[in-house]
Design brief:
Blueprint: H1 7-46, H2 49-77, H3 79-82, H4 85-119, H5 121-124, H6 126-155, E1 160-162, E2 168-170, H7 173-177, H8 182-211, H9 215-250, H10 252-259, E3 271-278, E4 283-290, H11 293-299, H12 320-350, H13 357-365, H14 369-385, E5 388-390, E6 394-395, H15 405-434, H16 458-461
Antiparallel strand pairs: 1-2, 3-4, 5-6
Helix pairs in contact: 1-2, 1-6, 1-8, 1-14, 1-15, 2-9, 2-15, 4-6, 6-8, 8-9, 8-13, 8-14, 9-10, 9-12, 10-12, 10-14, 12-14
GO biological process, one term: aerobic electron transport chain
InterPro entries: Cyt-d_ubiquinol_oxidase_su_1 (IPR002585)
Keywords: Cell membrane, Electron transport, Heme, Iron, Membrane, Metal-binding, Oxidoreductase, Transmembrane, Transmembrane helix, Transport
Length: about 475
């Protein structure tokens, strides 16, 4: 039934599906590992048990998310051999060692210290346990570094030569690892991971504040999350702008698609806020735009010329509509995060951070926003690179394995079924864990013995009539 389908399109959909499931778990675990390190450090410094209780609460959630991230990553990597063997053959001399370094450094570091972090507090002592937590957090950052170096090299390839059989062979490993887009992409992605985690933590804290359960623990995690939103969201917007300028320099066609510029603008390009890209007619229908603002943002000059897609052959254009909308989703969520951060600062100044239920409701709604923004940004980056796998050098059409469409379709259907069952169950379990924040301990009752017959003296409960409070 899939004989008339395009094997290349199906293979791209399969990789997009698996990487979309995979990326949400590392985006969460990178930020959560650092959050755990901060919680344990604060506990050792301040000796406040609430930080240790929050550490134990989020530690279990991290373990589940980390496990699902590892499993989904391993499954995804097999597609390099099944669906993209030509790409693996041609680019393998460059990307193979980089991915191997990720395993030899980051994965071994995480695996070596994860057990100590999860189960070893009472066995190795507080100092060594804190060191293990730091190493797990450091390992997640190293993992992101290597993987983003691979992806950035595919976006802005450098430090290579082509051999006689058409393979990319390394000539300068420093240039390969630290390729032109790598620093910007690494900073942008790591900050995105921290914001993603902050809004999940904030949503969990808001949920329990709204329910009135564990107000001290919930209030502490909510306050920490809102500090992260208020401080880091503006930094992320600045980092994203710098990343965009780097993309304009090295991948101008991607920026043309992001901005919806079908036509060149010799005297200043408008910023199109919204519209419907019409790839048939090469225009943006119903465009709501601000004149010359795009030139000001991208070139810091209102009248700076910007080239459009009319300068690019049709077969070298990315899918404009997808890139156009995914970019706007990412930017809109970024400014929404900034708005939540500003709102939290106002509530903190008014002394209502823990009592303003409107802020709590907004934070609860924004809980999954980081995942949506990460996916939107990833779609912008990867779809905007098309029609290349290695930008400017290797076409996607020349990277696919000699495989029939029915075979790709069968594995795609299997992935969809298994992923939704396995990772759906895992996600449901994580949500259940998030909803079970233990109640704050009751105040010490030192006014006499507690009655076991179902009633408690009024002096112990603070209520008249002796009725038990729970």
């Amino acid at each position: 039934m899939f004989e008339n389908f395009d094997a290349q399109l199906l293979a791209r959909i399969q990789f997009a599906f698996t990487v979309s499931f995979h990326i949400i778990f590392p985006a969460f675990s990178i930020g959560l590992a650092s959050y755990l390190a901060v919680l344990e450090g604060l506990y050792l410094w301040k000796k406040d048990k609430v930080y240790l209780e929050l550490f134990d609460f989020w530690k279990t959630i991290f373990a589940v998310a980390f496990g699902m991230g590892v499993v989904s990553g391993i499954v995804m990597s097999y597609q390099f051999g099944t669906n993209w063997s030509v790409f693996s053959d041609k680019a393998g001399p460059v990307i193979g060692p980089l991915m191997g370094y990720e395993v030899l450094t980051a994965f071994f570091l995480e695996a070596g210290f994860l057990g100590v972090m999860l189960f070893g507090r009472n066995r190795v002592g507080p100092g060594l346990h804190f060191f293990a937590t730091l190493m797990v957090a450091f390992g997640t950052l190293i993992s992101a570094t290597w993987i983003l170096s691979v992806n950035s090299w595919m976006q802005t390839p450098a430090g290579f030569a082509m051999n006689d059989v058409g393979q990319f062979v390394p000539t300068d490993w420093w240039a390969i690892v630290f390729n032109p887009s790598f620093p910007y992409r690494l900073v942008h992605m790591v900050i995105a991971a921290y914001l993603t985690t902050a809004f999940v933590v904030g949503a969990v804290g808001a949920w329990h504040l709204l329910r009135g359960t564990a107000p001290r623990r919930a209030g502490k995690m909510f306050s920490m999350a809102m500090w992260m939103a208020a401080i880091v969201a503006p930094i992320q917007i600045f980092a994203g702008d710098m990343h965009g300028l780097n993309t304009l320099e090295h991948q101008p066609v991607k920026v043309m698609a992001m901005e919806g510029h079908f036509d060149s603008h010799p005297d200043g390009a408008p910023l199109i806020l919204f519209g419907i890209p019409n790839t048939e007619e090469k225009r943006v229908d119903y465009a709501l735009e601000i004149p010359k603002l795009s030139s000001l943002i991208l070139k810091h000059d209102l009248n700076a010329p910007l080239a459009g897609l009319d300068t690019i052959p049709d077969d070298k254009e990315p899918p404009v509509a997808i890139v156009f909308w995914s970019f706007r989703v990412m930017v809109a969520i970024g400014f929404a995060m900034l708005g939540v951060g500003v709102f939290s600062l106002w509530c903190r100044w008014k002394g209502t951070l823990h009592s303003n239920h409107w802020l709590h409701r907004v934070a609860l709604v924004m809980g999954p926003s980081g995942f949506v923004a990460v996916l939107a940004g990833w779609i912008t980056t990867e779809v905007g690179r098309q029609p290349y796998t290695v930008y400017g050098h290797l076409l996607t059409a020349d990277s696919i394995s000699p495989i029939a469409a029915p075979a790709v379709a069968a594995s795609l259907i299997a992935f969809i079924i298994v992923y939704f069952i396995v990772f759906g169950a895992g996600t449901f379990y994580i949500l259940r864990l998030m909803g079970r924040l233990p109640r704050d301990p009751m105040p010490d009752l030192d006014d006499g013995p507690i009655r076991t017959s179902g009633t408690t003296p009024a002096s112990q409960t603070g209520h008249h009539g002796g009725k038990h409070a729970h």
